[in-house]
Amino acid sequence: MITLVKDYHEAMGITHNGTMHDDEVFATAFLDLYFDDFKVARVSEIKDDISSKTIVYDIGRGKFDHHQVNAKVRENGIKYSSFGLLFEEYGPLYLKKIKIKNSKEVYNYFVKDFIEAIDAIDNGIFPDIKSSYKIKMIGDLMKLFNPSYLSNDNSDEQFLKATSIAKVIIEEELKQVIGKVAASKKVKTILNKTKGPILVLDEYLPYQESLLTSPKGKDIKLVIYPTNRGGYGVKTVPISLTDKNSRVYFPKDWGGLTNEDLEKVTGIKGALFCHINRFLLTAKDLDSALELAKVTINIDEKN
Predict the structure, then answer these.
(1) Torsions phi, psi of 226, nearest 5?
(2) What are the pLDDT digits (tens) for 196-252?
(3) Bridge partners for 162 per DSSP
(4) How far, in Å, CA of 73 to CA of 121, rounded?
(5) Where are the alpha helices (DSSP H) in 47-154?
(6) Would the pTM count as exceeding 0.85?
(7) 31 Cβ contact list (under 8 Å, min separation 6)
(8) Integer Cα distance of 5 and 10 in angstroms
(9) Where are the domains of the chain?
(10) What is the DSSP string of 188-249?
(11) Do the beta carbons of residue 211 and residue 220 sit within 8 Å?
């Protein structure tokens, strides 16, 4: 459990006070996961009498700060945030501590899937999102915990609340990453055995990234898998990781139909549902799913 201390001489870690950001919030949450019962002080400046054993981050121009001119930069050009710097230092040790298999792969995937975005945004590199509505990213959500105008919220109490949620997010993200790393090997094995544009999975696996980054996945247009609601799902494959348009769409006259109406228009028993945007379809069994997929491939209808 994270404890905020007023006397920085008692602290295991020191970060800045005032407005909180996802960088030092997640950094603090991670340090508590690694060290257990982490004591942290939030200060406005770094004094000369701080112990060399104290971890100072996101302030002070030291090893775990990123505001200095010569701050560390990743090979892809993204400057590290304090969270990225701390995870590079202690992340492998943490994964070893909690006995993670394939720890190198998990580490690399976690950095790419989660930390680099925090690094980039905290350093002022924002994704180009063209939208008429507000999109809140994880940094925006963490900023919600800053005391709002006219509120009587205590800044330190809000910081503790934010870090408690950040801990849960880190743990859940890590579980997802562990699953994706394990699933990736299975997906690639199935891909290597697949001929044609339809990939069939005998269990649900997080497949998309492995498929889109594998040379064997470039010709796959539809994926069939058993769903957790019973029956089978048939899903279209995006053009790439960055282009979410589908390589093929279900026929236009299927969109939005269910059960008997979908069976009638497709001519296939067992058709259950087709999403109005025609990227997802469900069927009662594998045979029905395969028939629906084959019809779609033969029509090869675009959006």
Answers:
(1) -70, 140
(2) 999 999 999 999 999 999 999 999 999 999 999 899 999 999 999 989 999 999 999
(3) none
(4) 14
(5) 82-97, 103-110, 116-122, 138-143
(6) yes
(7) 12, 13, 38, 40, 55, 86, 90
(8) 7
(9) 3-179, 194-299
(10) HHHHHH--SSEEE-SS----HHHHHHSGGGTT--EEEEE-TTSSEEEEE-BSSSS--SBSSB
(11) yes
Please state, in angstroms and rounded to a whole number, the distance separating the CA atoms of residues 199 and 17.
51
- From CA 238, how far away is CA 241, in angstroms rounded? 7
Q: How is residue 42 written in tokens?
A: 């939030």
Beta bridge partners of 233: 225, 282
Between CA 234 and CA 286 the distance in angstroms is: 10
Q: What share of the chain is helix, strand, coil (3-state, %, to 5)?
A: 45, 15, 40
Tell me phi and psi for residue 13, to 5 degrees.
-140, 155
Identity of residue 5: V
Which two tokens mark 148?
A: 């709002």
